[in-house]
């Protein structure tokens, strides 16, 4: 048994498909099949049930998987020890975030981090939540900033922040208002992200708990385009409070508190359970929390890793 076989086994176990495992490991499908068969043959065991729809791990595979995660975790920790042996931070940092988080906070964090660690090459990616999780699984990201839900159970997570969702629109549309109830939104033309976005799913679920169903006139995934259209009189949207930067729209865009339902979004930093964070990531996280502390309306949650 070697590290490559363990890595291929973990990929196949988590993906449930040779095609997906091969894509994740950046190899051809026969390479996955051959290494898994060799692993099974050497131990005289069977780890997967094969059928036309894919592969299903058996009871032995479940037990073996937990040991494999431990081995890969130890390997990452060993690499981290070597990295920490030098005071010089270099290499490359790849961070992902959902677009709704990738505004002022990410820009400021990246700029400050570069000043502190000028020799670390940075790649910042944003995308749909599902894309970011896939990139994490495939090893294309060091970590990602995501809204939290139950599908992160196989990841390490560290709480970062909580914030209220607010109603935004032209200052004339919201003139004289400091709050807006959910059932009052029907009097306005509403713009929301599509159901491909986790933000929309959060909004719909909270409104559903209050027996309310939103009927948007437009569905736009681009946050910048959504906010631009919300500037038209009579139109409103619902967004995280930190996405509304007064300097971007002058005095034209106004935000008011959304109540009944009061809706909050939690953001976590997440990475695969077998991955040990590099020293540069720890520096980035400290810069991130420092940047967040300057943002009004945001509750900082510098939480423990789960």
TrEMBL record:
PROSITE patterns referenced in this protein's UniProt entry, alphabetically: HTH_LYSR
InterPro entries, sorted: HTH-type_LysR_regulators (IPR050950), LysR_HTH_N (IPR000847), LysR_subst-bd (IPR005119), WH-like_DNA-bd_sf (IPR036388), WH_DNA-bd_sf (IPR036390)
Location of the HTH lysR-type domain: 1-58
Name of one Pfam family that matches: LysR_substrate
GO CC term (a single one): cytosol
DNA-binding among keywords: yes
SUPFAM superfamilies registered for this protein in UniProt: Periplasmic binding protein-like II, Winged helix' DNA-binding domain
Keyword Cell cycle listed: no
An MF annotation (GO) of this entry: DNA binding
Keywords from the named record: DNA-binding, Transcription, Transcription regulation
Family: Belongs to the LysR transcriptional regulatory family.
Record's protein name: DNA-binding transcriptional LysR family regulator
Species of the source: Pigmentiphaga litoralis
